[in-house]
What does this fold into?
Amino acid sequence: MSLAKCRRCGRLFNQVIDKNICPSCLEKEEEEFQRVKDFFLHHPQASIVEAAQETGVEKKFILQFVREGRLRIANMEEGGEPLFRCERCGKPIPEGRYCEECRKKIAELLSNQDKVKPVNEREYQRGNFYFKEKILRKKEEKD
Ligand SMILES: [Zn+2]
Ligand SMILES: [Zn+2]
It folds into this structure.
């Protein structure tokens, strides 16, 4: 168990599940999720704003459900504006943070970064003097 800060109420709590939300907020969130889900089941074309008004669940929490991929809704616009835009290129996207294209580019960048990582460790000892260090080496230099 580790101490975590609840993303909803900001209280510190003992983290038992892999989520940064405290047990009482989690319960509340589940209950809200059910309410929002039920609303969209009956009003599939409704907007998030309408859902927030009808369910009493804050818009930002509904958006969070969508962002987490727990909820998929038909009406992803609000006043003609797409709800989500790619954080990299600004293209409207159905969910998440990046569009398909940018996701690929980011994955590429990350895998390039991956090539620079500790591949070796060096230990040195003479008398009482001892150290251990990681040797940073690019993968390409291996061959
Ligand atoms: Zn909480
Ligand atoms: Zn993009």
In short: Strands lie at 2-5, 12-15, 77-78, 81-82, 84-85, 92-93, 116-126, 129-138. The chain has a mean pLDDT of 80. The first helix runs from residue 23 to 42. Residues 69 and 78 are 19 Å apart (CA to CA).
